[in-house]
Amino acid sequence: MNGSMLCVDPLPWFDCDMDTRACNEHDLVALRNAWPTADDVHGAHYTEQREGTATYLVAWQDEEPLGSGLIQWHGPIGMNARAAFPDSVEVNHLQVRPELRGRGVGTVLLKAAEQLAENRGYKLIAVGVALDNPDATRLYRRLGYTPTGVIDVCAYDWTDDDGQQHHEIETDQLLIKRLSP
After folding, report:
1. Sheet strand arrangement including 5-6
2. Which residues contact 164 (CB under 8 A, 6 or more apart)?
3. Looking at the domain covering 17-178, what would its CATH class be?
4. Other beta carbons less than 10 A from residue 33's beta carbon
5. Where are the domains of the chain?
6. Gap between the Cα atoms of 172 and 154, Å rounded
7. What is the pLDDT of residues 24-57, one digit of tens each?
8. Exposed end of the chain (fewer CB within 10 Å): N or C?
9. 117-142 residue pLDDT tens
């Protein structure tokens, strides 16, 4: 699966051709150049993919990355979510470059993730969404994900583009979608 194209129909309202595929070594170089992150997030996600625990999906227009997301094949990462839905996969770290938000990139990434999960025989796919992220919640609900009432709290550190360290505590709600039988 590494680096192969996924068949996801382009969205009629998106104004460019978009390819969505699992990240490969060539893609990793392009990601680091076009969409740099202080903590090499792309490298960390690609490492998870190489270890077989995840698939790092990236949406592209030509050689330009539009957005990305990680499919966790061993289930939800939150303790409560994993206990409640141990047989699901989870899409996390879904992000779209700020200037491209609202143009269908997130939808295409989620549809590609759903297709991959279904192809592997999974019946449930989950997303965790921060309680203070209503835009993402609206997207997930529109795509058929339903709230479960399962809440997890996680703490993490990250570095911004200016090298400033941040500590975050995030409260996430798990949403779930049943895939085709």
Report:
1. 5-6, 19-22, 54-61, 64-72, 89-96, 124-130, 165-178, 146-159
2. none
3. alpha beta
4. 10
5. 17-178
6. 8
7. 999 999 999 999 887 899 999 999 999 999 999 9
8. C
9. 999 999 999 999 999 999 999 999 99
